[in-house]
């Protein structure tokens, strides 16, 4: 503290003074003598002068009041009724003065006493209360404040008793109670919002004085019952049974279940298919669609069963499951298939009309009419020797054939099998009917062709060889001349396998010589056997796990990698189609090439890696598949500007702060990685500027230090623009603001405007009169 002194000379006459204090209590009702226009208090002053002219006293008071008046006799008169709640005490300064201006003062205090003339009142007429359903006790909150009533007579404050006067709707009266002393309303019986026919209940409450129950106040409490997530979501059916045409395309719609929830707002949540391997998906709108159309083959799988889970978005995330059964409806997507490519029949000399020669048989995997087969002779029956039963496929002799000795008559018939589909499908087979006229054993063909699937158990009949042998006394013997270890032939002409054949091991085709002999005569023929591929090999990835990286700013459609797979089978059994699992829709794969590419924008700071599953499926029946894991790591790109933790840093610094002192620290963050996210600090601009920097910012820590002394009288505030730069190429820079307020220090003494003051004062000068004005200054701030 700095103190300055100045000399002061005063000249004055003395005046004797006398002070008094008057205290009076007045009832606001103006009862008794305190009625309107009555004297409340008498003020009296004495003057020591001897003459009447000099000792005549007049009175005045301050402040003036509309409630009281002061007579010339010094009597205070009550001018109107008083209100205790507005004013409880009056203080007046009364001045007594003679004609020469000599005066004295006294204080008059008038206390107002309250009495019981007002009803109680609540703080608010309407209160809003909130409580969760199924809860008892006090409200969760009540607005605008806690329920409270007070006696209108503030000076008495008669105790109050609270009660509930009505509840609307009235059936909820028993659910509420009010504490008679505190006025706290509570719920005694829990309310279930879902069973209520209203969302708000009005509770009318009353407060009455304990000494006079007719003096009351009323208020309304509107109680809002808040919803609690206490109900499970419900599907509109206990289970779903739907039908779907086989071969339906991707995204074909099955149905849309309806999910409800008795809680407020209804069902808010997600639906999902369980298990995820089911060939169906459910969209955000709840529609169930086809996810994998390749497996929708009724002939392979007629029925799919899965579940749909409905899970609430709000805690506690209640969930329910419902079963769905999808039955595939048949589509006429299969043609009739004959059990053999060619059939053989013989007509001998003992022929009779109507005799059965051979029966053809075709199968159709479709159902109902789509699989019902009708047979007909397409051509080759120009002479009308043959007939066929359209249902059984039995070929009979319609009329006898004139046979010729030593002449082989051949009748090639072409039989059509047609299904009953709306758009029918058909296939054909050849029936060779021979009528021999020669007794020598001989093959009816020099070349036979047949096919057999690989990996079949030994004993599969590939074809039946047609031959002539009319001598019952000398039945022929049929033998396999080449590859007897792999094939065999019976004396009835059934050519079959002796071992399993593997397509994947060469050769795929066999040329087998067969012979027929009755001991005297013989003949030979060739059987060409083609081994066909069976989908017994699944796709195989060259690597079961692949890791690749892609920059976060990769353009849509950018290629990431190919995860190739191979299949040892042939034809369509080795054709591979690729698909992706996982990746949150950020990547896609070309179904044919297997090229994985970017399908949506990437952000390493949001997600730095994606674990995907590449699935390869062949086109055989049944479908075989394999999978490989693909880890895609998103590499950082310098796409974020460093950001200061505060938009503006502020600090106060004493002007006497020593150089080198730490004033504050700034901090900036950059979510980029490595050098892209490494931040360095610098001072870009200082305002006001100076020849040499006043402050220094540590480039690594962000610590701001004082380099030069401060002077409050010269600069009261500095503003700095600080920069945070990352280590990327090019570097990205973020700006921040620092405000430093220089604080004044009391290092200057106050100063009078003069070294000495001379003053003359009259002896009758009234107290409180101004005699001199002193002027003091201080170069420090706000210290005078």
Automatic annotation (TrEMBL):
<dbReference type="GO" id="GO:0005509">
    <property type="term" value="F:calcium ion binding"/>
</dbReference>
<keyword id="KW-0106">Calcium</keyword>
<keyword id="KW-0472">Membrane</keyword>
<dbReference type="Pfam" id="PF00028">
    <property type="entry name" value="Cadherin"/>
</dbReference>
<dbReference type="InterPro" id="IPR039808">
    <property type="entry name" value="Cadherin"/>
</dbReference>
<dbReference type="GO" id="GO:0008013">
    <property type="term" value="F:beta-catenin binding"/>
</dbReference>
<dbReference type="GO" id="GO:0007156">
    <property type="term" value="P:homophilic cell adhesion via plasma membrane adhesion molecules"/>
</dbReference>
<keyword id="KW-0677">Repeat</keyword>
<dbReference type="GO" id="GO:0000902">
    <property type="term" value="P:cell morphogenesis"/>
</dbReference>
<feature type="domain" description="Cadherin">
    <location>
        <begin position="542"/>
        <end position="644"/>
    </location>
</feature>
<feature type="domain" description="Cadherin">
    <location>
        <begin position="339"/>
        <end position="541"/>
    </location>
</feature>
<protein>
    <submittedName>
        <fullName>Cadherin EGF LAG seven-pass G-type receptor 2</fullName>
    </submittedName>
</protein>
<dbReference type="InterPro" id="IPR015919">
    <property type="entry name" value="Cadherin-like_sf"/>
</dbReference>
<feature type="domain" description="Cadherin">
    <location>
        <begin position="236"/>
        <end position="338"/>
    </location>
</feature>
<dbReference type="GO" id="GO:0045296">
    <property type="term" value="F:cadherin binding"/>
</dbReference>
<dbReference type="GO" id="GO:0034332">
    <property type="term" value="P:adherens junction organization"/>
</dbReference>
<keyword id="KW-0675">Receptor</keyword>
<keyword id="KW-0812">Transmembrane</keyword>
<keyword id="KW-1133">Transmembrane helix</keyword>
<dbReference type="GO" id="GO:0016342">
    <property type="term" value="C:catenin complex"/>
</dbReference>
<dbReference type="InterPro" id="IPR002126">
    <property type="entry name" value="Cadherin-like_dom"/>
</dbReference>
<dbReference type="GO" id="GO:0044331">
    <property type="term" value="P:cell-cell adhesion mediated by cadherin"/>
</dbReference>
<dbReference type="InterPro" id="IPR020894">
    <property type="entry name" value="Cadherin_CS"/>
</dbReference>
<keyword id="KW-0732">Signal</keyword>
<dbReference type="GO" id="GO:0005912">
    <property type="term" value="C:adherens junction"/>
</dbReference>
<dbReference type="GO" id="GO:0016339">
    <property type="term" value="P:calcium-dependent cell-cell adhesion via plasma membrane cell adhesion molecules"/>
</dbReference>
<feature type="domain" description="Cadherin">
    <location>
        <begin position="123"/>
        <end position="235"/>
    </location>
</feature>
<dbReference type="GO" id="GO:0016477">
    <property type="term" value="P:cell migration"/>
</dbReference>
<dbReference type="GO" id="GO:0007043">
    <property type="term" value="P:cell-cell junction assembly"/>
</dbReference>
<feature type="domain" description="Cadherin">
    <location>
        <begin position="645"/>
        <end position="752"/>
    </location>
</feature>
<feature type="domain" description="Cadherin">
    <location>
        <begin position="38"/>
        <end position="122"/>
    </location>
</feature>
